[in-house]
Amino acid sequence: MRPERIATLQHLGLAFDVTDAGPADGTPVVLLHGFPQDRSSWDRISERLHAAGMRTYAPDQRGYCAGARPPGTDAYRLEHLVGDVIALIDATGHERVHLVGHDWGGVVAWLVAGNHPDRVASVTVLATPHPAALSRALRTFDQLRRSWYLAAFQIPVLPERIVAAAFRSLMVGSGLPSEDAERYAARLAKPEALRGPISWYRATRSSTVRAHRVGVPATYVWGSRDVALGRHAAELTRDHVTGPYEFVELDATHWLPETRPDECAAAIIRRAQSTQA
Length: 277
Hints:
The chain is of the alpha/beta class. The chain has 13 helices and eight strands.
């Protein structure tokens, strides 16, 4: 007997908004969005997963909804982001789920799979290489050039103001469809709304979560026209997965959930169906 639908996850005094949809007895899939998106980024993919018999749980992550915006940078360390996902898995009533992430949600998905393999039946990550692979790739000029914003976001206050002022043009210029950019902007294109999401970047240096190799079945989907994440990091990811692994390369930009839902959903379904939750 599974719990009733989850509309809100209560965890450590925070209230996370959750979209829980699909067949009530469906295969459990947790979907983690990236920056600067929200849980609606999964809508196109979710409807395809529901048709395949999956129940999806898509939260607005820490910093992205009014009930879960704790003050201070330390509240956004990786160990807290991982803990939020484990709390959601607990709330589903399942011992293990299929975990899916995009962008920052992909970072968290890799870390949950590596540190809590007993809670993850499989992991599918869109766009984001394994964190250890990205660290290795940052030794190259190409990836360092692509990742200039990592350093820029360490500056206090100013990044929130700049990104808020140019939100729509920045997102559309990087390949995000204008309708999605408008939807995300309605919630996040304000300095105070961006403070939590940008704190994810600032808190990384003080985080203590280790980027272990991933032993659960894993799929990595990467767009060859991704302006932020280059081929070297994508190809190095294989070195950090010890379980069954599939690498899917698409002729696409960074925004895979919004622009390539068919291929992404197919990869998620293929991985989940090959692994018993």
